[in-house]
Amino acid sequence: MDQRNEHVIWGTGAMGGIIAAYWARQGLSVTCVDTNQDHVNAVAENGLSITGPIEAFNQALAIITPDRVKGPLKRVYLATKSIHTAGAIRQIAPFLAEDGYVVSWQNGLNEHEIASVVGKERTIGAFINFSADLADPGVIHFGGMGATVVGELDGRATPRIQEIHAHMKIFNPEAIITDNIYGYLWSKLGYGAMLFAEATSNRGITEMFEMEKWHDLLIELGREIVSVARAEGIPLKSFNGFDPGAFEAHAGRAQGQASLLALAEHNRPHTKTHSGVWRDLAVHRRKTEVDTIMGAVIPVAEKHGIAIPLTRQVIQAIHAIESGRDVQGDHHMDRMAAGLTPQ
How far is Cα 31 from Cα 76, in angstroms, rounded to an integer? Predict the structure, then answer.
């Protein structure tokens, strides 16, 4: 099967599956690739069912396992969890056409890993923020929409990024192109640090952002990530209530709280109440992406001599829950909050 003209979506869980369904419904030629055999079987037999308040529909999709992929592949959209990036990109690379490219639809800074294998010129970044969960094999719950941004790593306005943007607008009409994709990705790391903290508790996302006793902790977490991004020379971008300026060292507590409450308002209508990290721990009882997402910040911080103690504590708490040495609960965030130096 020559898939040069296909849009190959590698990873058909919450993110990849929803966009694949929207694209296929619009008439794009889509081939999905996934390693979850139960999910593959369910979609192949019955189509992919999208549920939730945004839209509910069932879409037939072509779906295969990686061992059935044949090249050349021109358009690949990588939507696996970040812990699977290294393995997936090494499976993709031998099939990627000389003029092909891989777009990362993932959380974290996976573009670096992808580019190290296929080259920067064949790597494209994307920032996608929406609420969804794989509920059952063949069923994805779409809980809420968020920002959708695409961009070349070097910021150029190329024909291929224009094409990708047009296709992303099928999924989200408000999708945009940026010349600063890393500005969005690093901002999402700041937001993501807070969601990893939320996952150590049993609180929902909106509830956590509204709990004033944790505001100082969340603000300091945001400040750690923002300080590292600034040291890297990354101009940060706002999205969905996350205001990077509110987490600058010179910003006041009120400014930080305003951003936290804006994040609560953005998440309030979403029917996905807890983060995917929380679900990994509480429902699936599996390893999270903490090392490949938050752990990736540590060497960058060390390079610049920046201390990020709260980020490290969140990672340690996640590890303790993953290993069974501890359980989810308020005590993790309470302990971190209690250790803060009074301002």
Answer: 10
For residue 177, the cross-strand partners are 150
Rounded-to-integer distance, Cα 281 and Cα 262, Å: 26
Show the tokens assigned to 146: 């968020």
- Give the rounded percent of residues in the chain with a pLDDT score beyond 70: 98
With residue 63 as reference, give the H or E element that holds it.
Answer: strand 62-64
Q: How far apart are CA 54 and CA 131, in angstroms?
A: 10
pLDDT category of residue 3 using cuts at 50, 70 and 90: low
Same domain as 286, residue 242? yes
Say if residue 1's pLDDT is above 50. Answer: no
Phi-psi region of 188 (alpha: psi -120 to 50; beta: other; left: phi over 0): alpha
H helix runs in the chain, sequence order: 14-26, 37-46, 85-92, 110-118, 159-171, 181-199, 205-210, 215-231, 253-267, 276-279, 290-293, 297-303, 309-323, 331-338
Report the SS3 class of residue 207.
Answer: helix
Minimal CA–CA distance to 149: which of 27, 215, 239?
A: 239
Q: Which residues pair with 131 in a beta bridge?
A: 144
CA 63 to chain centre: 22
Q: Are residues 77 and 160 in the same domain?
A: yes
Domain boundary among 132, 158, 179: 179
Structure tokens at 186: 């690093």
